[in-house]
Amino acid sequence: QAKLAAARFEKRAAEVREYLDTFVGQQVREGLQALAAERPSDPKGALAKVCQGKKSLGEIGKDPKTVDPALKSAAPRQYLHATIVPTLVPALAECFREQPRRPISDLGDILARGS
Q1: Is the pTM of this model over 0.90?
Q2: What angle, rounded to 10 degrees, do the helices at 103-114 and 85-98 form?
Q3: Which residues have CB under 8 Å from 1's CB, separation 6+?
Q4: Neighbour-count burial for 25-59, b at 16+ CB within 10 Å, e otherwise
Q5: Exposed, middle or buried by CB within 10 Å (0-12, 13-18, 19+), for 60?
């Protein structure tokens, strides 16, 4: 039973990874890199606008920066885990469940609702 459940889980995980890599992977990676480098005060809003096409990656650098000293000095991965991951993971899951026609802009809309 456990082996069967593990096999089903792995199959489903592979489907999710393939969908996300195909439709949103590159854009999300680039957005996360920009967020980690620039440290905007509203990273969820910034990523939402980039996905919605309302802001370019370069414009994130013009956003006000975080004033939280812990976030300013955190390693990039820690910064992202503290600021965007709690909203991004459920947004990506919703995007996979719905599989919209415009996954990037819809991901932006989902993130904007979660900001």
Answers
A1: no
A2: 140
A3: none
A4: eebbeebbebbbebbbeebbbbbbbbbbeebebee
A5: buried
The answer on pLDDT for 73 being more than 70 is yes
Residues listed for the chain? 115
Give CA–CA dist 14/22, Å, rounded.
Answer: 12
Distance CA 5, CA 15 (A): 15
Q: Is the pLDDT of residue 114 over 80?
A: no
Q: In whole angstroms, what separates CA 3 from the centre of its chain?
A: 32
